[in-house]
Design goal:
Blueprint (H helix, E strand, L loop, with lengths): L2 E6 L6 H16 L4 E6 L5 H8 L5 E4 L16 H7 L3 E4 L2 H7 L3 H13 L3 E6 L7 H15 L11 E5 L14 H15 L9 E4 L7 H5 L6 E4 L6 H8 L12
Parallel strand pairs: 1-2, 1-8, 2-3, 3-4, 4-5, 5-6, 6-7, 7-8
Helix pairs in contact: 1-2, 1-9, 5-6, 6-7
Bound molecules: 2-phosphoglycolic acid (PGA).
2-phosphoglycolic acid (PGA) binds next to β8.
Length: 254
């Protein structure tokens, strides 16, 4: 399966900056046809992403969604609205939303059901708060995934990307988790989630990934891709990270 390399701009980029990012990155992505890309701009730049990425094969989507279908929820945006706009992905469960908005797994699960219910794909972020031994981190992560995917059937797992994002590795001043730890945890998640072929979740790693750390993270069995924050805000930096994905040995193999 192709590596999945995504970025969330978080609360960054004006429309002019977004335009620059999208027009710079589009041709660079074209040089890496063996990579699956997704970009998650803020709501304000989604319509621009639709316009600038049309026909490119680069997927795009939103960083949040309301758990409610419609109605009196001022300031919120529904899954149906995002699907109508053309979003493929919606991110949920990011540590910053849990921190800033008190989102708990029940709320995240409601958002997951809303996203899947209108045919979009989920990027579910999960990760342990501190660098605990893997024997402690794995059950914590699995418990969170179980609660956030409450009500999701195995047949839908192929539409759920798990972004393993240890909270202690996210953001300015942090470093990526060691790649052997990441691989260990990804393989444990894959084994416990089950699902095969098209019904298998892709498991990508996020947390301070840059061009220097990407090759060793991607070389780890169980790492299906990467989720990039601050080092993806520069489209050239994002493309440099994506170049770490090994090209297929033979044309036609993905
Ligand atoms: P970072 O963000 O790459 O800036 O650490 C990652 C994320 O939050 O997904």
């Amino acid at each position: 399966m192709a590596a999945l390399i995504g970025t969330s701009w978080k609360m960054n980029l004006t429309l002019a900056e977004a335009d620059h990012w999208l027009s710079t990155f589009r041709p660079l992505a074209g040089e890496l046809p063996w990579v699956d890309f997704f970009v998650l701009p803020p709501f304000t730049a989604l319509a621009l992403a639709r316009e600038r990425l049309a026909g490119s094969g680069i997927a795009w989507g939103a960083q949040d969604v309301s758990p409610f279908a419609n109605g009196a929820h001022t300031g919120d945006v529904s899954a149906a609205m995002l699907a109508d706009l053309g979003c493929r992905y919606v991110e949920v469960g990011h540590a910053e939303r849990r921190r800033d908005h008190g989102e708990d797994p029940a709320m995240i699960a409601a958002k997951v059901r809303a996203i899947l219910g209108v045919g979009m794909d989920v990027v579910l972020c999960t990760g342990e708060p501190d660098e605990a031994p893997v024997e402690v981190a794995i059950p914590a992560v699995m418990a969170d995934i179980g609660r956030c995917l409450d009500g999701v059937v195995t047949a839908d797992l192929g539409r759920v990307v798990i972004a393993y994002e240890p909270i202690w590795a996210i953001g300015e001043g942090r470093r990526p988790a060691p790649s052997d730890r990441v691989g260990h945890i990804h393989r444990a998640i894959a084994e416990r989630l089950g699902g095969t072929g098209a019904n298998r979740s892709r498991i990508i790693y996020g947390g301070s990934v840059d061009a220097a750390s990407a090759p060793r993270l991607l070389a780890e069995p169980g790492v299906d891709g990467l989720f990039i924050g601050r080092h993806g805000l520069d489209p050239l930096g994002f493309a440099a990270i994506a170049r770490a994905t090994p090209a297929p040995q033979q044309a036609g193999i993905r």
